[in-house]
Amino acid sequence: xxxxxxxxxxxxxxxxxxxxxxxxxxxxxxxxxxxxxxxxxxxxxxxxxxxxxxxxxxxxxxxxxxxxxxxxxxxxxxxxxxxxxxxxxxxxxxxxxxxxxxxxxxxxxxxxxxxxxxxxxxxxxxxxxxxxxxxxxxxxxxxxxxxxxxxxxxxxxxxxxxxxxxxxxxxxxxxxxxxxxxxxxxxxxxxxxxxxxxxxxxxxxxxxxxxxxxxxxxxxxxxxxxxxxxxxxxxxxxxxxxxxxxxxxxxxxxxxxxxxxxxxxxxxxxxxxxxxxxxxxxxxxxxxxxxxxxxxxxxxxxxxxxxxxxxxxxxxxxxxxxxxxxxxxxxxxxxxxxxxxxxxxxxxxxxxxxxxxxxxxxxxxxxxxxxxxxxxxxxxxxxxxx
Length: 386
Ligand SMILES: Cc1cc2nc3c(=O)[nH]c(=O)nc-3n(C[C@H](O)[C@H](O)[C@H](O)COP(=O)(O)OP(=O)(O)OC[C@H]3O[C@@H](n4cnc5c(N)ncnc54)[C@H](O)[C@@H]3O)c2cc1C
Fold this sequence. Notes:
By secondary structure, this protein is α+β, with helices and mostly antiparallel strands. It has three domains: 9-129, Butyryl-Coa Dehydrogenase, subunit A, domain 1 (Orthogonal Bundle), CATH 1.10.540; 132-238, Butyryl-CoA Dehydrogenase, subunit A, domain 2 (Beta Barrel), CATH 2.40.110; 244-379, Up-down Bundle (Butyryl-CoA Dehydrogenase, subunit A, domain 3). Helices cover 48% and strands 14% of the residues. The protein is built from 13 helices and eight strands. The strands form two sheets. A four-stranded mixed beta sheet has the order 1-4-5-8. Strands 2-3-7-6 form a four-stranded antiparallel beta sheet, with no helix packed on it. Bound molecules: flavin-adenine dinucleotide.
């Protein structure tokens, strides 16, 4: 492995940073390829420690760039993180599949619970730990304010009871950022708090759910009087909604950026396989959509990096993300006709898995119907429908 002096990464200009990154990727091709995450494996195998790809990037400084020194980072702006994700995707590498969760949870933890971030985030960043997000419930997905998982005040902490569902990587995670009700049920979004929970806490059990991609990356989590100490609350009591809304901005910004980097790489793979004039038109439409996504998520990341609230406009990012994902994978399916339906090579399984996963892009992190409502009412100021 080529040594990188990571100490000065935070002070490099975007061009210097990019040049150094590209050169490092080139010099370390063999090691990166050998340790690249393999999503055709089961979730347990693909995410099992020691997670060499993440360790390699961490040791060389690339996963420290753009994060504050207090959590092991080299300083610098979040734009550097965006450069790292895109640099790897452009060189054809798959990002570790739990990295998006890291990008969603860590900025929000830093803002609302810096002490917890300083103690625990380095484990996640360096690949020693995996974390998950415990928000959704069976009757509280889009309508998250109706969640029922309860945190009852007890001496020295909180007793959590309830049930979460659709939690990515929960069954292989070490910690969970959890939302639970601390107010009365009627208090809706005003009575919710956030907690950092260790998954091996007595009374916490994650059960994997097998999805139609036949991977069990999603789970449900049961809480049965699980004790969480007072110092594990994120922010103030009943500040959980505000925390979640801040976190969602990063999900719409940096996560979308990671996905557009992957989609653009996918389009470059597809382009030589396009044969019919219909496919040519679809290719043009797919590039346009991926480019639109790139532009809006670029704007959102830069706003968030400067501490500017991105606002309801991020619903546009989410809508572009889900539609770009689906258009690109529709086209991938079309150019790989035959292999998609009947192929049994690992590449074919990857295509089918990716295709199914992109169908869920209009559900996770805010369903498309809800996002369209937000854009109509809060961005465009249109009247509510009857
Ligand atoms: C791949 C994947 C990963 C996920 N990862 C996580 C995770 O890590 N952690 C976590 O907590 N959750 C996770 N989720 C859950 C996700 O956040 C929810 O699926 C999402 O919020 C939608 O909630 P729901 O599934 O209950 O659907 P519902 O809210 O029941 O919605 C069902 C349908 O009804 C529509 N609908 C609902 N309300 C309205 C309305 N008011 N107006 C118009 N239409 C409406 C929706 O748009 C949707 O089409 C994940 C989901 C997926 C698919």
